[in-house]
Amino acid sequence: MNNKILTICFAICLLTPFVTEASSGTSFVSDSNGSRYALIDIIQATYRIMIEKQGTVSITTEWNFDTAIEGPIVFDYVGDIKTAVLDNNAIEFLQMPMPDGLEMLQVSSISVTPGNHNITIKTSLLLEDNDLFFQFNDRKNRNFLEKYAPANLQFDQYASRFVIATNGINISDYTVIANGKITYKDNQIEVIFPSYYNCASYFFHLFESSKYIVKQVGDLTIYGTDLQHETFLMSETKSIEDIVANEFNEMEKLLGPWPHNYKIIKLLPFGGMEYAGAMNTSRSKLEHEIFHSYIGRSAMPRDGKAAWIDEMLATWLDRARPSFRSVDRVNAGLNQQIDLYARVTIADAYEYGFLVSGYLDFKLRKSNKSLFEFIRWFHQKYKHSLFSYQQFLEALEEYGNKDLRNDFEIIIGAKKKPWWYL
Hints:
Blueprint: H1 3-13, E1 18-22, E2 28-31, E3 36-39, E4 41-52, E5 56-67, E6 71-75, E7 83-86, E8 89-91, E9 93-97, E10 104-112, E11 115-126, E12 131-133, E13 159-167, E14 174-178, E15 181-185, E16 188-193, E17 204-208, E18 213-217, E19 220-224, H2 226-232, H3 240-255, E20 263-267, E21 272-275, E22 278-281, H4 286-292, E23 299-301, H5 309-318, H6 348-365, H7 371-382, E24 385-387, H8 389-399, H9 402-411
Parallel strand pairs: 3-6, 4-13, 19-20, 20-22, 23-24
Antiparallel strand pairs: 1-2, 2-3, 4-5, 5-11, 6-10, 7-8, 7-11, 9-10, 12-17, 13-16, 14-17, 15-16, 18-19, 21-22
Helix pairs in contact: 3-4, 4-5, 5-6, 8-9
């Protein structure tokens, strides 16, 4: 059988979507036919970003990774792969449907053996208005790193760097703001990121230096256009620097020392989005996004099943941190509404999560504790690491008691509500 026939047969197999769960050891995912696809464990990554004069961006992704089983490898990238070389051999990637049948993942057309491997993947983007910003969005699925460059299917943590160069453009005319160590050398810009980052952590923005007003105050970077500065300060009498510094100080009093090496604020007229030690934010969302650098981007959800927990807690913070004696409805499984590998926050995490958080605070206060004390303790426990839904349950039990965990599972719908439950 020739390679073309093999590829056609493989493509037909890919019409069957993934099942929603991985193996207990998270070494593979499988489809409903029982075929297994190897998950990768990235050890180190380099993303070589070439800015072309005509406005295109070529990205060469270099991964060193391990696999635990034999089979085709799978990872996430929403665009098209131009070429790929695995262990010095050219390979192709096809796309497989996610369990919802709407999203597609990249799957290699050949199997790999267990062990360590190297892969190089070439992709491309368009430079918009001489501006390259990795703008993430957790309200839409697959809008983290995988929107711009290949990323692991899992929320993997690994050492990584970006190397930026230009062709026909003077790189000295550009500024890079990123939550990594930036070095300018040999007509290149290198950004080395902390090894605890995952696909939702990276803040990377390259732009013409004249485009934004950048303010540097100690370890704090604040930038935006003239209009964005003005909008942020509407009805405020203090300077942006004083407003932001005060919010950081207040959060550190509540949750402990700042957990990152960077404090980056990109100003927005409304809304916000969190990164590790960085954020796009309006004035109204500033406190919310600063909180996420503790819960969400320091103590980080391990997968889609836990991805709503940080928003549940952040929304409670936004609304004056009340206590509720009871919650008037049982949600139909907050943790069951999302796929294990989804990269999206469900809407109930905000409105219903706020009520659940207030109820947890009420229960903790009955034993002279509080939800905010739990959050501070939980962050220290999972600082710079991943937590699962199950580990969050165990933390509730460890900090509170078994009844607190049980009540939480009932009110989010993970356990059946008993007849006597009020």
